[in-house]
Automatic annotation (TrEMBL):
Family: Belongs to the zinc-containing alcohol dehydrogenase family.
Annotated signal peptide: none
Lineage of source species: Eukaryota, Fungi, Dikarya, Ascomycota, Pezizomycotina
Keywords linked to the UniProt accession: Oxidoreductase
GO molecular function: oxidoreductase activity, acting on NAD(P)H
Enoyl reductase (ER) domain mapped to chain residues: 11-224
Top-rank taxon, per record: Eukaryota
Family matches, as InterPro entries: ADH-like_C, ADH-like_N, ER, GroES-like_sf, NAD(P)-bd_dom_sf, Trans-enoyl_RdTase-like
CDD domains, alphabetized: enoyl_reductase_like
Residues annotated as transmembrane: none
Cross-referenced Pfam families: ADH_N, ADH_zinc_N
Protein name: Enoyl reductase (ER) domain-containing protein
Length: 224
């Protein structure tokens, strides 16, 4: 059996400590991922500084929520993946070498995307998906192959953030015209992602510009 190591937070506002950790066995609906890269998210820093302000946090804790690596073991019910697949996924306690991840929380990494880049995707994508499609939020129709324009527009304030970039692409795929705000250096990038128009959120006339852009159109939501 392989050895496992994890970066533990043993007390509030202390450095992480690298220690041995139990090697995980997959449940029926889980894969075991050997991490090649993980992402550090703002919530990880907040948990380190504030500790049990987060009620689910118990010391010693393994932080992290994004994984990126290779599948090394399969639960008995796994059908989407095989040993050796490059995957990224979302699960709690990702700051360890070997991590169990639910099959539905994993996706294969395209060959042209590095492990490091793939590690940045799970949290951003999950936040974007929840904001757009979850019944408690906008509850928009999910994108599907061949989805055509629905004639509606969605406005993304701060479209060049990590979550914003995900929302731009998902909303475009779901049939919406996407209008975004960003700093001018990101205008071309957001248009490549699918935004039809991009405006400078520091402009003194931003309100008037946005009102003119959506004039006569069905505006679904202002996403912040």
């Amino acid at each position: 059996m392989s050895e496992n190591k994890a970066a533990y937070l043993v007390a509030v506002n202390t450095p992480l400590e690298l220690k041995s950790a139990p090697y995980p066995e997959p449940e029926d609906d889980q894969v075991i991922v050997k991490n090649h890269a993980v992402a550090l998210n703002p919530v990880d820093c907040a948990q380190q500084k504030l500790g049990t302000y987060f009620p689910w946090l118990k010391f010693p804790a393994i932080l992290g929520s994004d994984v990126s690596g290779q599948v090394v073991a399969l639960g008995s019910g796994i059908t989407k993946f095989k040993i050796g697949d490059r995957v990224a996924g979302s699960t709690m306690g990702s700051f360890q070498e070997y991590v169990p991840v639910k099959e539905y929380s994993c996706a294969k990494i395209p060959d042209n995307i590095s492990y490091e880049k793939a590690a940045t995707l799970p949290l951003c994508l999950s936040v974007a998906v929840k904001a757009l499609f979850h019944p408690e939020y906008l509850a928009l129709d999910l994108p599907a192959p061949g989805t055509e324009s629905n004639g509606k527009v969605i406005l993304i304030w701060g479209g060049s953030t990590s979550v914003g970039c995900s929302i731009v692409q998902l909303a475009k795929a779901a049939g919406f015209e996407v209008i975004a705000t960003a700093s001018p250096r990101n205008f071309d990038y957001l248009k490549k992602l699918g935004a039809s128009q991009v405006f400078d959120y520091n402009s003194t006339s931003i309100k008037q510009e946005l009102l003119a852009a959506v004039q006569g159109k069905t505006l679904v939501q202002l996403s912040l």
